[in-house]
Amino acid sequence: MLVFLIPLMLSNTLQSIGGTVSSVLLGRAVGEGALASASAVFPVTFFLVSFVIGLGSASSVLIGQAYSSGQAERMKATVGTSLTFTLLLGLLAAAVGNLFCRELLLLIGTPPAIIDSSIGYARIIFTGLPIMFIYTNYTTFLRGTGDSKTPFYFLVISTALTIALSLVFVLGWLGLPSLGLNGAALATVLATLVTFLALIGYLWWIRHPLALDRETVKKLRLDRQIVSLLIKIGLPTSVQMIFVSMAEIAVIVFVNAYGAHATAAYGAVNQIVNYVQMPAMSLGIAAGIFGAQLIGAGKQDRLDELIKGAVVLNYVIGVILIGIVYLFNEHVLSWFLTEPSTAAMAKTLLNITLWAYLLFGNSMIISGMMRSSGTVLWPMLITIFSIWGVEVPAAYLLSRQIGIEGIWLAYPISFSFSLLAQYVYYRLFWKNKDHGRLFDPPPKTS
Predict the structure, then answer these.
(1) Fewer CB in 10 Å around end: N or C, the chain?
(2) Residue 36 and residue 118: Cα distance in Å, rounded?
(3) d(Cα 302, Cα 61) in Å, to the nearest integer?
(4) Stronger pLDDT, 86 or 43, i.e. the higher one
(5) Which of 350, 345, 308 is nearest to 329 (CA)?
(6) What's the whole-number average pLDDT of the chain?
């Protein structure tokens, strides 16, 4: 798991570094208004991306089980169907985002001072969603086979391109005009496109089992059985992510009420949290993929060993990472924010919420393990209630009592409830069930 986890964590880190560099450039070179504009767009983008996150999660489970049980034909069919489905969702999300851009931003209470700049930034990001969706899904396919190194190598390329293009477009290097905020969005989209094309070419060149070869191209259609499984496993995850994104929208509505400085502080805190939650997210993904492979290989007896190892890694890595951030939070926040009052606000919010991501990681591992068998309904319901029954009401009530700090206090409260509920369901119901393959095993040959 550790061998798989290190490239996965580095991949997630690199993925965020490009966004961090853009945020630093926007916050320091263009201004905090630009950072606030980009931060205001994030919840809307996350809402649109939520539709494909569940699809990728389902694909990794199906590919993991097919791969470990030797069903190469079924694996390619899953790739073809998932890519087709993802492209259709990406085109739909791009259309909705562009058509209703202003309405979506107004709906979440984006401050009037940044609404126009936010719209320009958002439309570029929305236009690139189809290629972002497909690229993200392809890396999920590779990880489903246990290959976390190839996605990491190409994320190195993607991150380097994002940083280089951000410098060129945001600052106007190489004689090009300075595009400011819009340059950061353009850099992200172009870097993703170039990296995806390079990945497809590389997989074809090395004749990888998941390469987009002639056989896989023929399967670029909607296979009814696979679509049914993708919807069965992926829809609850997508619904969960939609509710998560809607909660982020609700949170930023609460934050926006405190003005553009609060929105900028929210953006800076989110950038740091992205790194802190990476081990948790990575371990949740790893537990799901390894769990699917163990089930596919008929080794259900090793699931206990898997979850114990993942939980230990969560607390060891999390304590080290969170401790470092607590020690150097003022310095880290200075990368994003130049206004002392905004930085002080962000520091307070960071101190309130950061430690709770240890609980978040534990909950993600339990949920990922259950999803590896196709058990998605109850993990979804628990997560949704943790957010909308606990986090959002707590954020609203506490913010009215003690101010913006109350919004961030809601996160530890929600994570604690989620961990307790996920563990109770895992221990009392899921653990003692027999978890069979989602696909029939291939016929034996003499």
Answers:
(1) C
(2) 8
(3) 17
(4) 86
(5) 350
(6) 83
